[in-house]
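thought: fold this chain, then report.
action: predict
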Amino acid sequence: MGMSTTQHTVRPPLAVAPGLGTEWRARQRLARVSIDPPPGPFGRLLTWVARRMYGQPLDNANAMARNRRVLLATFAYERRVARFNQLDPGLRALATMAAAAEIGCAWCIDFGYHLAHDDGIDLAKLAAIPTWRDAENLTELEKQVVEFAVAATRTPSEVTDQLVARLRTALGEAALIELAMIVAIENQRSRFNSALGLVSQGFSASCQLPSTE
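observation:
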């Protein structure tokens, strides 16, 4: 998950929102670039917007702010991505989380749970992704979406004609195109965040995640 935006809601503050304390300093040591809020009015604005939308500043936004063109271009792009509307939100969440898990982006997984929780997505389905083939709470279509996301994320791609044909029949071409693009976008987000050493910053703490035991 990246610096996603939504059109329909302002996200409430998190129940647990770490400040610039011990947890932040630990993340700062692991990050390969600065995640300090940028100085000056722009930095204050960025922090205010992040707190209003997500409950706390975003480490990846602070990292991007070191190259303001990258930050602003990404924000504008994510605003457009948020308007995609052909793919069911639950399937979209499964696809993005599966891609993030395949890459191993801890920041994206943490943030993804928060977004899914806020949007009313069934978190038990997301928690089933590591064992999706045998997960009893995933439908056949949901398993195919996860399979597609995992296969498309691997290098080289392992997507098969048969899998795409099944998804085209189930979803239609417009939603299939959106699915493929969402997986590609999540690959971009996850690879950026993991490459720069960004780790979980506690977004999922308020989600009451289902037990995986």
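thought: worth noting. The chain is about 60% helix and 0% strand.
final: tokens above.
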